[in-house]
């Protein structure tokens, strides 16, 4: 059993979780621009040094927390059918975007990204890339099963799947009715040229 070197910081998972929760709550309450390391530390019940042992800056902390929160909610559905996979994936996307905290955080992150695109590049790339990779796996499986055409434009397909949900929930701020996912899946199957619908 390996021993922790003398003097090395031991990052306790429960402290990291308290900090993560505090970051999300501060982002929801204060927004990106007004969030401070001091406020996060106070809310988490830790000293600022606990934050700096984990991340070098506010930007790095926010990027790590938002990425972890977002990527862990990207469902890797494998129901055996494209229809089933789409349904689970789209529902997970809706659940992510309507999460009580994240639904308040995302619009602010988008606005901050427009103001300072370089600062938020890490969040945009890590969250976007990871979630798209999950979607690509789903689509490639469907191609291999013969449910989608072999020449499917993956980039366009991924945009087509996510955009209506983002537009409806974030831009229009309209609700997703109980049958919304099922209706959207049927449209998506037609748009992607699914075989046997």
Give the SSE map.
Layout: H1 13-30, H2 37-44, H3 48-52, H4 58-71, H5 82-97, H6 102-115, H7 121-144, H8 154-171, H9 180-191
What structural keywords apply?
197 residues, mainly alpha, Arc Repressor Mutant, subunit A, Tetracycline Repressor, domain 2, 2 domains, 9 helices, 0% strand, elongated, HTH-type_TetR-like_transc_reg, TetR_C, TetR family transcriptional regulator, DNA-binding transcription factor activity, Tet_transcr_reg_TetR-rel_C_sf
Structure description:
The protein is an all-alpha fold. It has 2 domains: 42 residues, Homeodomain-like (Arc Repressor Mutant, subunit A), CATH 1.10.10.60; 124 residues, Orthogonal Bundle (Tetracycline Repressor, domain 2), CATH 1.10.357.10. Helices cover 65% and strands 0% of the residues. It contains 9 helices and no strands. The protein is elongated and about 60 Å long. The N terminus is likely disordered. This is TetR family transcriptional regulator. It comes from Amycolatopsis rifamycinica. One of its GO terms (molecular function) is transcription cis-regulatory region binding.
Shape: elongated
Low-pLDDT segments, ≥5 res: 1-8
Question: How many strands, which pairing sense, and closed or not: the largest β-sheet?
Answer: none
| Rg value | 20 Å
The string of secondary-structure elements, in order, is HHHHHHHHH
How many E-type strands? 0
**CATH homologous superfamily assignment of the largest domain:** Tetracycline Repressor, domain 2
CATH class of the largest domain, please? Mainly Alpha
Helix content: 55-70%
Structural class: mainly alpha
Q: Tell me what the CATH architecture of the largest domain is.
A: Orthogonal Bundle
Q: What's the helix count?
A: 9
* Fraction of residues in β-strands: under 5%
**CATH fold label of the largest domain:** Tetracycline Repressor, domain 2
Mean pLDDT: 89
**N- to C-terminal distance:** 55 Å
